[in-house]
Amino acid sequence: MTLLSRLLPLTIFLLFGMIQPLWASGSVENSLDLTKHTVGYLALAIFTLAYLLVMVEEFTHLRKSKPVLLAAGIIWACIAWIYAAHDIPHAAEQAIRHNILEFAELFLFLLVAMTYINAMDERNVFQTLRAKLVCSGMSYRTLFWVTGVLSFFISPIADNLTTALLMCAVVMALGKDQPSFIGIACINIVVAANAGGAFSPFGDITTLMVWQKGIVAFQDFFMLFLPSVVNWVIPAFIMSFAVPKTSPPTCEVNVSIKRGGKIVMALFGLTIVTAVSFHNFLHLPPMAGMMTGLAYLKFFGFYLKKTHVKYTKKINDYDPAKAEEVLGDTVAFDVFRKIARAEWDTLMFFYGVILCVGGLGFIGYLGFVSQVMYIDWGPTYANIMVGILSAIVDNIPVMFAVLTMYPEMSQGQWLLVTLTAGVGGSMLSIGSAAGVALMGQARGYYTFFGHLKWTPIIGLGYAASIYVHFLVNAGQF
Is 375 inside a domain boundary? Predict the structure, then answer.
């Protein structure tokens, strides 16, 4: 008998055997108040423990999806057990179905976006950009600004995590002789990628959730452009004085985009247009437009696959090197391989977080938090605190909690919380997916304490971006 099978009965006994008698604040037909019940305390403890494991993923190497998936299952099992005991089992069922629907929309949207990013990566789109930067001959200080600008403007389309990893590969290649440059350049990339992602529905998971919820229209996100610029430029300007003026050694790399790469880029742009059109004009979920856009890539992938052999036959005395040059690829394009390479751990992590936070909301905790933050404190202080919490916990569960609470706020306040949740994570290296990923990619060069040294400067940019938002978007409040 395994250890798990021995512990399972004991675990079930501890979960259900110590449950106190239920005291409901409202009628049983509507909902049960479990905030002061053992199940509520247990759910909080389980979620806290799970998220602590997520936060130390870099050290334990335990994938972040595993603890939150288990926590989600246990939390909803406890909720369902209580509701079944009070003869209202369908209330919990309906609630979890609602959360699953929210996850499904986010999942399908991200799956298409990740597939396109993987397809462009396979077509050497990003490698070509990286090669041009590495062999550009620019000084370290110029490259500091160039990688920052590119991070800021690529992340609204390709998301902040992908952008950060791409730019980090550039600075890692350039900074072999200047280790200090790698650390400060990575900080700049994280801040720029997070700031760039804050003014686009495609730039961050939090902005995507706000857009899919229908709270902020697609075009209204661009009101955050100037605040986002300020959020990045102020820390970057101060940090740039610590970057050496010398230049990296010259080099020559011959990398080119594979056959069809530019068309894949165009199809991704068309897919974004389709998603926006479905949402704005047809009032359908953006996910429906993204899935339609996936069909564009599937049909083009079919064309690439069918024409692959025909092009190969044009090469006399077949040589792989020539095939790479003429065809752009030696292996036929397969769109399902691009789907398979999606960040499945991240997607499953979103499932766990959405169900965990949804469960805590169903228990009643989010209503209590909403009362304290958005009624007692006021929306401005609450939304500023959301950004600070995002640096400590992660912006995804924090923003989903805000969306679940759905406080009554002006459009300007919704834009404010979108901004703070997007850029607040830049204050710590563990506060965003971009920062966590770069700590792994640039291990030893970009560290938690190295980033922490610049936190006051990044915080200055955070405060300035909020001030600029109130200044330029005053009419939205």
Answer: yes
Distance between CA atoms of residues 325 and 75, nearest Å: 55
Phi first, then psi, for residue 348 (nearest 5°) are -70, -30
154: nearest Cα among 119, 192, 120, 109: 192
| 16-61 per-position pLDDT tens digit | 333 333 333 333 345 788 888 889 899 999 999 998 888 777 678 8
DSSP string, 384-397: HHHHHHHHHT-HHH
For the chain, the first-to-last Cα distance in angstroms comes to 62
For residue 236, being part of any structural domain is answered with yes
Our count of domains for the chain comes to 1
Rounded CA-CA distance 252/135 in Å is: 6
Q: Judge contact between 326 and 307, C-beta under 8 A.
A: no
Among residues 197, 119, 192, which one has the least CA distance to residue 150? 192
Closest CA relative to residue 227, chosen from 188, 194, 183, 178: 194
Nearest of 9, 153, 22, 131 to residue 79 by alpha carbon = 22
pTM of the entire structure? Answer: 0.76
For residue 386, the model assigns a pLDDT of 92
Dihedral through CA 459, CA 414, CA 432, CA 165, nearest 10?
-110
Looking only at Cα atoms, what is the longest distance across the chain? 82
**Cα–Cα dist 335/315, whole Å:** 25
Range of the domain at 218: 35-108+116-249+343-477
Distance CA 223, CA 106 (A): 23
Question: How crowded is residue 253: how many other Cβ atoms within 10 Å of its Cβ?
Answer: 12
- Beta carbons within 10 angstroms of residue 434's beta carbon: 31
What is the CB neighbour count within 10 angstroms for residue 6?
Answer: 9
pLDDT at 15: 36
